[in-house]
Amino acid sequence: MIIAPLGYVALRRRAVARRLALPPSGIDERGYVRIGGVDQWVQVRGTDRANPVLLLLHPHGASTIPLTPLQTSWEQHFTVVQWDRRTVGRTRRRNRRTGDADWTFDRFIADGIELVEHLRQRLGHDRVVVAAHSQGSVIGVGIAGRIQHHVTMPLDRWVLLVLAMWLGTVPFALLGLAMGYALSPQLAQPANFLTFFILSVLGGLLVPVAVFPRALRHVAHALPTNRYAELGWAAAGGHLPTALGGTVLLAWTAVFAALAALAYRRSTASR
Question: What is the fold of 19-152?
């Protein structure tokens, strides 16, 4: 009874090891790097040292290093760098929560910039590509802004920005609920993707509104995606959103809330 599960585990480990194997031209390094006065765990993997460097920034409280076996396709095209920030994984265990006292976005951004400079020197690349998720996205934007444009923001402005961005997602969450209740599971996901993609394009998130024809500019300013972006820009600048922008977002919130409530009632009535 015990031998079979143990044999399966051994086979799985062997399969994962084969999947993670890299050619001689590759790189597979992991260890602690002194960043911001704290030893922080960094993993570097890729099939070719000449490939561009990709730094992955994990969400709050969760290291993505255990997901390395799922990222082997990326390693074919990038030298993938994963970093356990002060509050997670091996970095936290190494320092026994010492880094928790410095839990601020400014501290994480400063650590990230120091890591980028370390990677540029260690790997011999001038540029480092950053990909991020959740909290890591805020840190990634801060790293890019500070390195490229010497942009800095005090802590209170970061808090305002995160709060504004969070509140601004309400109408989109309601729209997602409306489609989830109105459509079958097979259709809901592609419908959500297509809808939000169209709203992003027409709202000027992928192409600046300034290059739109005049008629499309009016359409863009009437969409919640454009006003959501405006909300973020205002918060980052330490300003209040315009009255018109706030009114547009509130109006779309009311519309999507009504659609979500209607779809919910129809969904429960049909059961």
Answer: Rossmann fold (3.40.50)
